[in-house]
Amino acid sequence: QDVNDLKLRVEKGSIQMATDDGQFKFGIGGRIFMDAAAYFDDKTDLGSGSEIRDARLLFKATVWKNWDAKINIGFDGGNASLKDVFLQYNINTNSFFRAGHFLEPFGIEQTESSKTIKFMNFSSTVEAFRPGRNLGVSYDRWGKNYYWALGLFGSDVNNTVSNQDEDFGITSRLVVSPFHKENIMHFGLSGTYRSVNSVTVETNNGYGYSSTETTRSVRYRSRAATHIEGRRFIDVTVDNAESQLKFGIEMIAASGPVAFQSELINSKVNVKKDYSSDKDYKAKGWYMQFGFLLKGGNYKYNMKSARLAKPEPGSLELLARVNETDLNDEHAFIRGGKQKDISLGCTWYVNHNVLMKLNFTNVDLDENALNGEENFNMIQTRLQFSF
Amino acid sequence: QDVNDLKLRVEKGSIQMATDDGQFKFGIGGRIFMDAAAYFDDKTDLGSGSEIRDARLLFKATVWKNWDAKINIGFDGGNASLKDVFLQYNINTNSFFRAGHFLEPFGIEQTESSKTIKFMNFSSTVEAFRPGRNLGVSYDRWGKNYYWALGLFGSDVNNTVSNQDEDFGITSRLVVSPFHKENIMHFGLSGTYRSVNSVTVETNNGYGYSSTETTRSVRYRSRAATHIEGRRFIDVTVDNAESQLKFGIEMIAASGPVAFQSELINSKVNVKKDYSSDKDYKAKGWYMQFGFLLKGGNYKYNMKSARLAKPEPGSLELLARVNETDLNDEHAFIRGGKQKDISLGCTWYVNHNVLMKLNFTNVDLDENALNGEENFNMIQTRLQFSF
Amino acid sequence: QDVNDLKLRVEKGSIQMATDDGQFKFGIGGRIFMDAAAYFDDKTDLGSGSEIRDARLLFKATVWKNWDAKINIGFDGGNASLKDVFLQYNINTNSFFRAGHFLEPFGIEQTESSKTIKFMNFSSTVEAFRPGRNLGVSYDRWGKNYYWALGLFGSDVNNTVSNQDEDFGITSRLVVSPFHKENIMHFGLSGTYRSVNSVTVETNNGYGYSSTETTRSVRYRSRAATHIEGRRFIDVTVDNAESQLKFGIEMIAASGPVAFQSELINSKVNVKKDYSSDKDYKAKGWYMQFGFLLKGGNYKYNMKSARLAKPEPGSLELLARVNETDLNDEHAFIRGGKQKDISLGCTWYVNHNVLMKLNFTNVDLDENALNGEENFNMIQTRLQFSF
User: Fold this and answer.
1) Using CA of residue C203, residue C209, residue C215, residue C217, what is the dihedral sign?
2) A-chain residues within 8 Å CB-CB of C354?
3) Which of B17, B60, B63 is the best residue to mutate to test the A interface, defined by the most A CB atoms within 10 Å of its own CB?
4) Which of A26, A206, C18, C77 has the greatest number of beta carbons closer than 10 A?
């Protein structure tokens, strides 16, 4: 049937249009994140200030029952950028194929919407090692007690380099949650391999074209648990890279209004070994965070996305996080710096649409960081709206 | 209640979705401005032509009765830019708090939508001195005969400079309208202070880091009452700025189909006084404009925004404007040029969505302007659509 | 009447809002094109890979019965760009005036949506010579057996050069279709003239300003029937251009499930003749393509847009195309290269929203092409979603 009536509703603060038979659903939405930050005790002079951290327009569609599409465009910083832009075929209620530009299935924070991450910013570990959104395909499935996703990815949005085949990555996440009704327990493993293709440079020496292969670099870097001050205090570039391999372990445990979440990520860059001194580069990081619902009942779990659900409207949440990211590899003589940071936070889930965050963070950097050893503090706040 | 039916309506040519109880309202919209300009008698060779002056997509939302949000993205010139992007809490029907990226409350034209300004372009005075949209918070309230707004603002969208705390501005507008039924009378005052923070530059002299403070500049400049030709004929840069202070007086008077509107703006840049010859820089400008509704009844007034209301669909309006902007400060030996321009206009409000403008302008520039003394004319036209 | 109820429907997979009297209609939509390409036998090392070829947000409106507006913003490559952004006044059901940013009426493929073109990419001939979207006005009308459009255009979106009046173009397309019920026959002619204005450069020699006129260039170039590899293998720049003139012939013939389509384009650049050796530059190209509906019934025709209609959902289409583009002008001693390519394709119109394409192309380049003579193959695929 080519014409059907759509019912227009507001559901949890969001616009929904749907046919009665559920074959067609459409949604439009948007978000605004407004941040402010003040930095204290900074040796490196940090720029306190404010920003529109995120502004987005979103179109969602379900058509012909099984096809989902999402077009989410970001406008932070005054530039347009593609966020989730994908097409999905729902095989059944517990599995789907997806193609497009979306988050690689690796760990908890990397795959989580910035609307629901606990602190204002990713842990610096996840920021340093996250594969982010890339263009690819994935297969996702979940059951009563597990979640599994496998994806094959190219690069981000476009193949920008002409004289080089695009890098590719293969990424998978497996989560098992033995129970998540009264109490919640969740274990997960993620792994990703990504090729680093060499670049072919063609030169004309007068007698004809000759082509040489040039190796490329891999870079890991991370902000100091903030975004308004944009400098990366830990930053490493590994030359002559051939591929990279990352491995993540994740855990969630919750009981009533108390929750624990932790991730550990190991990364290895395989380096072309021209000389005996050339060694593969290894880096790692981890965070542990604790949540306590002062108001709002108990923590709940969502098996479909394999993470804690967003607390109910009206909830008030206290948070603490310890995070360490180590980009120094003494063995390979490559030192990108080491960052330890401790954060305390409070989040008020005002209603389905509005949310306020207050974060305090202490950052401790070692002698290999941007301006050497230093220790500073910051207070940050966010006013968040989404529909 | 988490699910509610929305009624879908077109209201004055715009899409509205609302629950019956008024707790939720959503709107989507857009606009297109198409301009053409022909320049005559131009000594400086001006580029006649056409442009998409503005193209926008807009999402609006009212949720949980008191929370308003607006996401308005502009795409003119082929780049995305944030326009009004804010979250607002309506305290009652006569006051609100607002946070986000929006126009600082300073004067009439600066705070007016480009959909309803009388001529195709701002007066060059307002263009030169307007604070524009910045990221901040404001409190607005209005009554039967007054409007008052107070805002605290950072910089535009992002804190782009890392090694400097963001500038801030405090801005306020107070309007009194003793009567605005049959006849309309409106007086207003606006003031704004804005800091100009110095930049810290860190240098490593081999023995350790030393940091030096560098002062920054303030720039005022203005187009020649047009936009297709983009050059600024008057333009001043004041170095060693420490802060700037602006002061505006505004007046509206209308009776039946005749309206008068005028603004006067004074600006002062406080300069760091290293030498006795260093003096603060002062500039000023004003405009007076007259409107006559050939068709469309009488002018009406809107206390909530403290300005004349948009004429009814079908109206035909004749306009005249005299404008003078003086960026020369003989006392401080800084001369940015002086521009006098006279404009005549005609606007046809075809319906709620479509509007056509025809403007003639004569521009007279003094010897300190871009290419010295000159006098030229232009005819400009706009076809405007919004919903 | 200022308030009217809108009915919300999904029609052929797209959202439609309309009043019962048809005076107001609104639509929102979007699209995602996801491409992948693999290149074989390439002497020039081509970058196989994938990309989000197109991502768009669209608002459409019909207001007060006769006014249509369209705002279509593209986000491919992570930048915002204006696509169709125009206002249209429908004179009657068979003619309209249009103003804004839209495709000049020249030939079949140039005026066709990328949602419905047969292959994944334009023929290289159309890509090389197409005027594309520009800012202008047009008058379109069509009857039972004809279509005619005439447009006057400036440049693309903005007049970017200050010291030069904008170029203008005048373009027209005339199509006659003697019959298009059982069998389809269509002949068309298109022509376009475009000025190439010189640039005025002002210089101050110390005694006053003097201005010199500088001529400009015209450039034609084309990708190798692909987009992921972005290099243009044929590319010509004609200096001292004064104007350009293009002429196109088009033909469509179809019977049942078999269709034939062809275009031939001639282009001439009029060159300023300072020396007797200066000659006008001429280039040309053509393509022929065949379609066969393996499933999906017969080809249909649409007189309003003067082209074949999109096949029905569920259709499976086989395609073949021969294309030659010759940018060499031996007479004028300007050689931009010559490209011959042969493509085979298969398109599955899954439903109104989803479409899949598979294309094979062999490209043959002459000695004047980017890296000289070469011959390579490619396989490309697209997953397309639109609503």
Assistant:
1) positive
2) 63-64, 67, 87
3) B63
4) A26
What pLDDT digit, counting tens, does each position of C213-254 carry?
A: 788 889 999 999 999 988 999 999 999 999 999 999 999 999
Distance in Å, alpha carbon of C219 to nearest chain B alpha carbon: 21
Angle, CA of C241, C247 and C253, to the nearest 5°: 155
Q: Which domain holds residue C48?
A: 7-386
Flag whether C13 is in a domain.
yes
Q: Is residue B2 part of a domain?
A: no
Best mutation target, B31, B35, B52, to test chain C (most C CBs within 10 A): B52
Q: Do B80 and A75 touch (CB under 8 A)?
A: yes
The model's pLDDT over A69-93, given as tens digits with 9 standing for 90+, comes to: 999 999 987 789 999 999 999 999 9
Asked casually if ipTM beats, i.e. exceeds, 0.90, the reply is yes
Structural domain includes residue C2: no
**Total count of domains within chain B:** 1
Angle formed at CA B307 by CA B304 and CA B311, multiple of 5 degrees: 105
Distance CA A373, CA A44 (A): 10
Residues A153 and A105: beta-carbon distance below 8 Å: no
Range A299-311 average pLDDT: 97
Bridge pairing between strands C169-180 and A307-308: unpaired
**C266 vs C287: CA distance, rounded Å:** 12
User: Phi and psi at residue B67, in whole multiples of 5°?
Assistant: -100, 120
**Min CA distance, C269 vs chain A (Å)?**
30
Q: Alpha-carbon distance B344 to C230, whole Å?
A: 49
Structure token pair of residue A126: 């996840």
- Distance between CA B371 and CA B373 in Å, rounded? 7
Query: C26 near B10, Cβ under 8 Å?
Result: yes
Residue of B7, B10, B52 lying closest to C135 (CB–CB): B52
Q: Which residues contact B211 (CB under 8 A, 6 or more apart)?
A: A45, B200, B201, B202, B203
- By Cβ distance, the residue of A11, A30, A48 closest to B2 is A11
How far apart CA C242 and CA C195 sit, in angstroms, is 7
What six digits make up the tokens of C134? Answer: 């520009």
Nearest to B77 by CA among C155, C107, A191: C155
Cβ proximity of A273 and A241 under 8 Å:
no
B164 pLDDT exceeds 90?
no
Q: How far is CA C263 from the centre of its chain?
A: 13
Q: What is the CATH number of the domain that holds A300?
A: 2.40.160.10
Q: How far apart are CA B171 and CA B190, in angstroms?
A: 7
- B201 token code pair: 């530059």
Contact call for C159 and B28, based on CB within 8 A: no
Give the containing element (helix H, strand E) for B220. Answer: strand B216-223
B205: which 2 tokens?
Answer: 């002299």
Indicate whether B1 belongs to any domain. Answer: no
Give pLDDT, residue A207.
Answer: 66
Structure tokens at C256: 């049942």
Residues 6+ apart with CB under 8 A from C303: C142, C143, C144, C145, C146, C147, C177, C180
